[in-house]
TrEMBL record, chain A:
Protein name: Phosphate ABC transporter ATP-binding protein (PhoT family)
Domain ABC transporter: 14-256
MF terms (GO), sorted A to Z: ATP binding; ATP hydrolysis activity; phosphate transmembrane transporter activity
Naturally occurring in which organism (per UniProt): Novosphingobium kunmingense
Annotated PANTHER family: ABC TRANSPORTER I FAMILY MEMBER 17
Gene3D superfamilies: P-loop containing nucleotide triphosphate hydrolases
Entry keyword RNA-binding: no
GO cellular component: membrane
Annotated Pfam families: ABC_tran (PF00005)
Automatic annotation (TrEMBL), chain B:
GO biological process: phosphate ion transmembrane transport
Keyword Membrane: yes
Methyltransferase among keywords: no
PROSITE patterns listed in its UniProt record: ABC_TM1
Protein name: Phosphate transport system permease protein PstA
Database matches in Pfam families: BPD_transp_1 (PF00528), DUF3333 (PF11812)
């Protein structure tokens, strides 16, 4: 089965090999191996509690903050093991950004929300440079035209969809190589969802994007690679078109066709 | 006509609904009565206190003119510039001049009721404005405690006649006593002031705040954000909760046994008092701080960590600013309790008679609640009103302190 994890001829951005995650005694992820391509949007799908979010959080070590969580196996970013001792988690998270399920802007101004990351990493040498970064990030997140006249307003005063795009802009502002998205549209209405999906499509190619989603339609719309998780195992990984039209595994087919999940 | 079963069911529902509404009305009325009761108690307390305190902020004053122009005393105004101006005036016989003017105006019996040190107030007025030496000065000096009591129809009967007579002439009046707010403690109710205790309280509270707030907040941050959840942190948590419930006099004993053993020369000092009260206040701040930090949504921490903030940056840039209003609320409660605390300070010697306001953190002092306790213990009836006045000062101090904290809290309050 291992050979199946490498689908593309180009070097993968992230390689995970035999990864298992434990919460205390409970095993949440069981022996997952996968290559994440730098060029494509990769979707993780599967029923609730299958471990797809857990696995996503191992990719930038956000699981470190959960007491009792333990990761086995190897995860490498550009060939460098991110769980090796001496790995700087702060630097890792600057390279692997994350967008969460619920929009979580800081209760600060829109400008401060974007400027915070560049500022703590020292990316801007001057105030004008910082303002450029903020403008560029907001433009890339497709939010600039809506907020350019009220950058000093609180980020929490925006609508849900705008807040989520603000969070994406915040992640982009630190120039990450990978963006992890944990069900970014589950708290949004269909119009805002469509807007985020467009945005993901625009960002593709510049960043490796991994998105966890409950919605199979969404996975089909935005991703080029899909991994199906079930009960902590990765059942199947392949081109999105193959997974949805011609799944190899019976369980994948059952889930896709709505037999369960 | 209609089905009896349905009718009775509707009637049952109607009856039940009425009972529900009645219960709701009863509960509302009970709540209102409870609020009304506490408001009345508070109003009663404030009204009686204020009524008493109005007398406490006043004193009986003897008023008479002193004619400096007649040349009974020769002083060069230039000599009143220096630090020993009072000695110059004393050497020039100011005391006798005042006594003479008093007996001229008030009679010998009246002049006898002028306290020994009263001439110093005239001296201070002259030092303030030496040009007064060229004219007639209208002196308003405190009457003796006995005469003040007689004016209240109290104390020695033989003085009441004199008091009535002087009062009728407008020479003995009750006037607002600004000096009450600037003097220290004294033996007689006419001469006491609250400034010594007020300053002692301020210094003590400052020490308490400077120690308890940073230590309490850092402990709360460590326990919430860093400490692993294990048996040791459980024990620490239980200990802190217990510490908050320890009777305050025990903290006084601790201060006596530990702090005064280390700094034996600082007995009665605001430094030691503040350290003792800080022990008592810290657990309150730790507990409220932990709750406030716990209430910060985890999504904010995730957001900060995900853009690459370190743990310390996450805590200081995001978690603490959001938790600050809650921490400040706990600090208000803890500081208010510390301000009103008497028992632990008795143990470390802050109940001593201290006549001069403290110069600094290490000079002997007393604090407002201890001063109130001391004055309430005095025999002289004049102290009753002074005690009420001191209570009002304590309450105002509390109000200012809490007002400041609430202002700060509202400034930092943010919504998410």
């Amino acid at each position: 089965m291992n050979t199946l994890h490498t689908l593309d001829s180009i070097d993968p951005k992230i390689t995970a090999r035999n990864v298992s995650v434990y919460y205390g005694e409970k095993r949440a992820i069981d022996d997952v191996s996968i290559d994440i391509s730098p060029k494509y949007v990769t979707a993780f799908i599967g029923p609730s509690g299958c471990g797809k979010s857990t696995f996503l959080r191992t990719l930038n070590r956000m699981n470190d903050t959960i007491a009792g969580a333990r990761v086995e196996g190897d995860i490498a970013l550009d060939g460098v093991d991110i769980y090796k001792s001496g790995m700087d988690v702060v630097q890792l998270r600057a390279r692997v950004g994350m967008v969460f399920q619920k929009p979580n802007p800081f209760p600060k101004s829109i400008f401060e929300n974007i400027a915070y990351g560049p500022r703590i990493h020292g990316l801007a040498a001057s105030k004008t440079e910082l303002e450029e970064i903020v403008e560029r990030s907001l433009k890339r997140a497709g939010l600039w035209d809506e907020v350019k006249d009220r950058l000093t307003d609180s980020g929490t005063a925006l609508s849900g969809g705008q807040q989520q795009r603000l969070c994406i802009a915040r992640a982009i502002a630190v120039e990450p190589e990978v963006i992890l998205m944990d069900e970014p549209c589950s708290a949004l209405d269909p119009i805002a969802t469509a807007r985020i999906e467009e945005l993901i499509d625009e960002l593709r190619g510049n960043y490796a994007i991994v998105i966890v989603t409950h919605s199979m339609q969404q996975a089909a719309r935005v991703s080029q690679r899909t991994a199906f998780f079930h009960l902590g195992k990765m059942v199947e990984y392949g081109k999105t078109s193959d997974i949805f039209t011609n799944p190899r595994e019976e369980r994948t087919k059952d889930y896709i066709t709505g037999r369960y999940g | 006509m209609s089905d009896p079963a349905t009718l009775s069911r509707d009637a049952r529902i109607a009856a039940r609904l009425n009972r529900r509404y009645a219960a709701e009305r009863r509960f509302k009325a009970l709540g209102f009565v409870a609020v009304l009761f506490s408001a009345l108690v508070l109003a009663f307390l404030l009204v009686t206190m204020t009524a008493n305190a109005l007398g406490g902020f006043q004193r009986a004053e003897l008023r008479f003119p002193i004619d400096f122009a007649s040349g009974a005393m020769t002083v060069d105004p230039a000599q009143l510039e220096g630090a020993n101006a009072m000695q110059v005036l004393e050497g020039a016989g100011l005391k006798d001049v005042v006594a003479f003017a008093a007996s001229q105006s008030l009679g010998d019996a009246g002049a006898a009721e002028l306290p020994d040190g009263a001439w110093r107030e005239v001296g201070e007025a002259l030092i303030d404005d030496p040009s007064r030496l060229g004219g007639t000065f209208q002196a308003a000096l405190p009457a003796s405690d006995d005469l003040a009591a007689a004016l209240r129809k109290d104390g020695q009967p033989q003085l009441r006649g004199l008091a009535d007579q002087l009062a009728a002439q407008g020479k003995l009046v009750t006037a607002f006593d600004w000096g009450f707010l600037s003097r220290g403690d004294a033996t007689g109710p006419q001469d006491v002031g609250i400034w010594g205790a007020l300053k002692g309280s301020m210094l003590t509270m400052l020490v308490t705040l400077l120690l308890a707030f940073p230590i309490g907040v850092l402990a709360a941050v460590y326990l919430e954000e860093y400490a692993p959840k294990n048996r040791w942190t459980d024990i620490i948590e239980v200990s802190i909760n217990n510490l908050a419930a320890v009777p305050s006099i025990i903290f006084g004993l601790l201060g006596l046994a530990v702090f005064l053993a280390i700094f034996p020369n600082y007995r009665s000092a605001p430094l030691i008092g503040g350290m003792t009260l800080a022990l008592m206040t810290m657990p309150v701040i730790v507990i409220s701080g932990r709750n406030a930090i716990k209430a910060v949504p985890p999504s904010i921490r995730d957001a900060a960590l995900a853009v690459g903030a370190s743990r310390v940056q996450t805590v200081f840039h995001h978690v603490l600013p959001l938790a600050l209003p809650g921490i400040l609320t706990g600090t208000i409660i803890g500081m208010a309790r510390a301000l009103g605390e008497t028992a632990p300070l008795l143990m470390i010697g802050m109940r001593a008679f201290v006549a001069s306001p403290p110069d600094g953190f290490t000079s002997p002092a007393t604090v407002l609640p201890v001063q109130i306790f001391l004055w309430s213990d005095e025999i002289d009836r004049g102290f009753v009103e002074r005690t009420s006045a001191a209570i009002i000062v304590l309450l105002l101090f509390l109000l200012v302190m809490n007002g400041l904290a609430i202002y700060l809290r509202n400034r930092f309050e943010k919504r998410w």
